[in-house]
Amino acid sequence: MPFKYGLELLAVAGILGFCALFLYTSSIMSNAEFAGSDTVGSSQIAELTGKSIEDYQPLIWQWVPPSGEIESALFAIQAAIGGVLVGWVFGYWKGQKKAA
């Protein structure tokens, strides 16, 4: 008789491993400050060109939302649309497999 809960135990082990790694990493880096990719990219460009970050001008104009709440809402909508699309693809694949 094959082991009944193999995939479930593997998923739980993966989640526990991720949590352990996250807790270990966050305990090492107690004074770490989060910086988004825009900040890191701008500072790398400034370092390579020898200019300050304030002098950096992007090639393409970027719209800045009027408030943080609107930015969060747009991000949530983007994540929801992405989740629906991923779910649709997996559902389509499962339907194709079931039809075959």
What does this protein structure show overall?
With 100 residues, this protein is mainly alpha-helical. The chain folds into three domains: 1-32; 33-62, no CATH class; 64-100. 68% of the residues lie in helices and 0% in strands. The chain has three helices and no strands.
Produce a short descriptive summary.
With 100 residues, the chain is an all-alpha fold. Helices cover 68% and strands 0% of the residues. The protein has three domains: 1-32; 33-62, no CATH class; 64-100.
Topology:
Layout: H1 6-28, H2 37-49, H3 68-99
Shape verdict: extended
Number of strands: 0
Provide the gyration radius in Å: 22 Å
Determine the fraction of residues in helical runs and give it as a percent range.
Answer: 55-70%
- Classify the secondary structure makeup into a structural class: mainly alpha
How far the N terminus sits from the C terminus, by CA atoms, comes to: 28 Å
Low-confidence stretches: none
* Domain unit count: 3
Main pleated-sheet profile: none
SS element count, helices: 3
The residue-averaged pLDDT reads 84
Strand fraction = under 5%
Record keyword descriptors for this entry:
100 residues; mainly alpha; single chain; extended; 3 domains
